[in-house]
Amino acid sequence: MKLSIIIGLLLSGIVLMVSCQSDDQLEYVRYYSTGRVLYQSKCQNCHGAKGEGLQSLIPPLTDSTYLKTNKIVLACSIKYGLKGKLDISQKTFDGQMPATEITSVELAEVLTYINNSFDNNLGVVTTQMVNEGLNKCN
Amino acid sequence: MRKILIVAAFILLCGACKFNGEKKNLPIYGNRQPVAKTVNGKMVTDTIYQTIPAFKFVNQYGDSISNKTLDGNIYVADFFFTTCPSICPVMHRNMLDVYNTFKNTADFKIISHTIDPQHDSVPILKKYADKLGVTGNTWWFVQGKKEDIYKLSESYLVRKPQEDVKQLFIHDGSFLLIDKQKRVRGAYDGTDPKQVSQLIADIKTLQADPEQVAKK
Questions:
Q1: Closest Cα of chain B to A34: distance in Å?
Q2: Which of A50, B32, B108, B114 could form a disulfide with B102 if both were Cys (CB 3.0 to 4.6 A apart)?
Q3: What is the DSSP letter of A43?
Q4: Which of A45, A96, A98 sits opposite B89 (nearest CB)?
């Protein structure tokens, strides 16, 4: 009887520890999976299932350096659209991305998906980061 | 669409009996009309198939492209516009596979009709082709009078494009396979890579069809 209580306590302790540790991980998984659905419905037509873009018409989402340096700017671009010249993956793009009606949470989700797919490995983008970024949009 | 499918199924069924054991033939879509004519003093019944009517457009190089230009060619047709944010990028991502497979085939063409000729001028079509990486004379992006393009789309069994409230165009993403007699031999969903693979296979089947080989 005593033994089972001890084991029970130990187990719940482990569960507690694990759940504390993986809070970030849980958030990441939640953002990533919702982000994937958003990506498929709003981005994939143009940017492709593998983030490959389309020749010189639509930029790819595989340039980790670009994504890393423009993580927050991208929230503005997705929400308000983008126009003009853009250098990505050694190519110059001069097209237009339409604005999208999208919430900050959704932006965080879709950016988390993009930043951690297509061989990118840049970690979670939180809603807080997105909100801070949106305040600085041009 | 259902009618087309029923007709297609019927043709396939007939084909199954008639050409049992022979190489697969592609169906011929559209209306058909039996005509009686006299050959060597005997009455025979012939069939007139629906064909793509005459047209005249301009391609991305500023060259005139008419039904005559396409004589002796098997071709694939679709309808798009360069500023289309929805299905066009998917269609042309998939069409690039068709282009890359057949770009060195002399009697094969791809004709993409813009349904927004007011915006898609010849220089804009050229720029679009360049950016897509399309060169040479295999894949033509054509523009012309809007009414002509919309009217012609009906002969390709494509849903007629409409302008919705946002002044954006609704059109379907079909790729149409046309033979040397200008008959529709296949319709594929250009947004589905699997159907586009089928299109590539069907083009090869059509190219090997003795009737197509004989037709210049």
A1: 21
A2: B108
A3: T
A4: A45
Q: What is the CATH number of the domain that holds A43?
A: 1.10.760.10
- Using alpha carbons only, what angle is made at residue B4 by residues B1 and B10, rounded to the nearest 5 degrees? 145
| Residue A103, in any domain of the structure | yes
Nearest chain A residue (CA) to B129: A57
A contact test, residue of B131, B189, B196 with most A CBs within 10 A: B131
- Look up residue A34 and give its two tokens: 């919702």
- How far apart are alpha carbons B194 and B185 in whole angstroms? 18
Could you give all domains of chain B from N- to C-terminal order, each with its CATH number?
2-49 (no CATH), 56-214 (3.40.30.10)
Nearest-5° Cα angle at B126, B120 to B131: 105
Q: Which of the residue ranges A91-100, B9-18, B53-62, B102-111 would you say has the lowest mean pLDDT?
A: B9-18
Phi, psi of B33 (to 5 degrees): -140, 125
Structural domain contains residue A30: yes
Q: Closest Cα partner for A39 from A93, A95, A96, A116?
A: A116
Determine the structural domain holding residue A124 and report its residue range.
Answer: 23-134
Q: Which backbone phi and psi does B159 adopt, to 5 degrees?
A: -60, 135
Q: Report the distance separating Cα B171 and Cα A77, nearest Å.
A: 27
String of b and e for B71-86 (b: at least 16 CB within 10 Å)? Answer: eebbbbbbbbbbbbeb
- How does pLDDT run across B52-79, given as a tens digit for each residue? 999 999 999 999 999 999 999 999 999 9
Here the ipTM equals 0.74
**In this predicted model, what pLDDT tens digit does every residue of B5-57 receive, in sequence order?**
665 555 555 545 444 444 578 999 888 888 888 888 888 888 888 899 999 99
Q: Is residue A6 part of a domain?
A: no
In a domain, A111, yes or no: yes
> Which residue type does B79 have?
F
Residue B91's contacts (CB-CB under 8 Å, 6 or more residues apart) are: B78, B80, B173, B175, B190, B191
